[in-house]
Amino acid sequence: MEEPTVRGTVTPLSSMFPVEDAQRAAKRVEDALSEKQQELNQVKEFIADNTNLINLVQKLPEELHHDIMVPFGKAAFFPGRLIHTNEFLVLLGEGYYADRTSKQTVEILNRRGKALESQVNSIKAMMQDFRAEASFFDATANEAAEGLVEIREEYVEENSSERVSDSGSIKQRSSSFSEADNTNVEDEEYARMMSRLDELEQEELAAEIDNEVDEDNQNQGNTAKNDKESDEDEVYARMMSRLDEFEQEELAAEMHNEVDEDNQGNTAKNEKDSDEDERAVTDFDQFSDQIARDHNFRHSEELRLSKPPQQTKDKKTSEDLSNNYRHQQDFSDQSCTDLTVQAVTRDIVKSSNAEKASMLPEVKENVGAVPSSKNESSKPGIDNSKVSAQISKPGFDIQKAFTGSVVEHSPKIQTSTQEQTETSSKASKPVSRFKMQRR
Amino acid sequence: MGSSTALRELQRELENKANDLSKLQKDIAKNHQVRKKYTIQLGENELVLKELGLLNEGANVYKLIGPVLVKQDLAEANANVRKRIEYISAELKRLDGTVQDLEEKQNSKKEAIFKVQQRIQSLQAGKAKA
């Protein structure tokens, strides 16, 4: 990126579309538009006349005759009387007339009104087209006048090793984050498991208090007490081994019971115990499942963290005009992570409330790391990033221009993103910078 | 000196061609106007045909011929209008053909003019160098 290679061509827009030509074209379209407007007005007048006529024709047959002033020549009138008020001679067009009654005449006039309406609609559609055209020509003229340039560049795929070196620092950052997270999470998981284990033990103790009445099961109570006193670090192993012990003891107890056929009540209690043990095991499984899930989530987030910078890199190499689009995508990326974060936090709320408080800030930190790492990644290609930052400013122009053209503005427009404000101060003369690159 | 006479000749040629082109453009514009008129007439005739179709059998139909209204049979009027529509459609087709023809001619003329202009430019450039 840093080597001044000439990859694309930069052509000022004004060379392709001279300002005067664009303006002339815009004017012509405006003229056509006003013509259409006149036509529309005329048709609307026709419609008004037609409705008036309909009203008149409907009213005439209400009387047998009307006293009217008959026009005679250009300026003279004489009084007259209108008779046969329900007989009309209607001009159908092309010199054809027909004798019609009032009702039939109104029907004809209504049909004519409909035809006029359709005409109005078509004219309006045409006017809309013209308006779009006019706005386009105006925009082109303005762009040409402001000295926009079109940049065309071949898409060249970057070396993957280069990319890795660029994004390596980011990966390290993200991994350090996730490590811290992991330790934290493990602590919390551990605490949660411990509390759960305590619960289980209490339950067992309660069960064993019952059993203590039966002196057969005193050993079990002892082991339980021992467990409680034992070091907390080794609880996992102890739990498992204790379960084994339980089973063995029960087996032994059962054997014993088989021998002592009097103690039938004991077997029942033993069964109860074994049930409880099974429950413990399943609970334990659930825990480990959850841990695994959480780890998975961590992992996926790591991936997501390291991915966006690479993507942006790719896009920069392609020098795509869609830099603006890139920013949008970044935002959407961020929002995506936000969404997942929310989902995850909800999960955690389900499992334990205490964890939620410590989890949220971490996750936020992670999300915050995304934009900062992006800034880093954009630094290696300073020239390019500057260019892209400039290009991304006139977002609306990009949309208006033909596809495949990158439009450049002098930095008048205020930008919102951090990156843009950073670089816009440096890049005050965009055109000269391009010239430098072309050399 | 030879080059200057050639230049003058070329300029004369260019003028002639430009005149031809403007004539062609006028023709095309006229053709468009006629075409517009015919399309309007076609629309009107179709409207009339529709209305005639809606009239019942015994209705009185008149045709304005000059200053007088002449009573006509409904069937006759119908046939007349139909014939007129046919005629106008045929005319429109013909006009389309001529317009296309004229536009082709116009394009070839434009190209020719462009070539002449280029030749003039190259001649002038050679002169400036010499």
Low-confidence stretches of chain B: none
Choose one word for the global shape of chain A.
elongated
Strand percentage of chain B, roughly?
A: 5-15%
Overall pLDDT score of chain A: 64
Q: How many domains in all of chain A?
A: 2
Order of helices and strands of chain A: EHHEEEEHEHHHHHHHHHH
> Helical proportion of chain B?
over 70%
Assembly type of the chains comes to heterodimer
- Count of structural domains of chain B: 1
For the secondary structure, the number of strands of chain A is 6
CATH topology of chain B: Helix Hairpins
Net shape of chain B = rod-shaped
Sheet of most strands of chain B:
2 strands, antiparallel
Q: State Rg of chain A.
A: 43 Å
Gyration radius of chain B, to the nearest Å? Answer: 27 Å
Key terms:
heterodimer; A: 439 residues; mainly alpha; Helix Hairpins; 2 domains; two-stranded antiparallel sheet; two-stranded antiparallel ribbon; 8% strand; B: 130 residues; rod-shaped; Prefoldin (chain B); coiled coil (chain B); PFD_beta-like (chain B); chaperone (chain B)
Protein described:
The complex is a heterodimer of chains A (439) and B (130). Chain A is mostly helical. Chain A folds into two domains: 8-147, Orthogonal Bundle (Helix Hairpins); 160-380, no CATH class. Chain A has helices at residues 13-16, 19-59, 102-146, 160-212, 218-229, 235-259, 264-318, 323-351, 353-378, 382-392, 395-400, 418-424, 430-438; strands at residues 8-12, 66-72, 76-82, 88-93, 96-100, 149-153. In chain A, strands 1-6 form a two-stranded antiparallel ribbon. The longest helix of chain A is centred in the middle third of the chain and has 55 residues, at 264-318. Chain A is elongated. Mean pLDDT of chain A is 64; it is low at 165-180, 220-230, 262-276, 280-285, 294-407 and 410-439. With 130 residues, chain B is mainly alpha-helical. Chain B has a single domain, classed as Helix Hairpins, CATH 1.10.287.370. In chain B, 84% of the residues lie in helices and 8% in strands. A two-stranded antiparallel sheet of chain B has the order 1-2. The longest helix of chain B has 56 residues, at 74-129. Chain B starts with a helix and ends with a helix. The A-B interface holds A 89, 92-100, 107-108, 111-112, 115 and B 41, 44-45, 47-48, 50-52, 54-55, 59-65, 69, 72, 77, 81, 84. β5 of chain A pairs antiparallel with β1 of chain B.
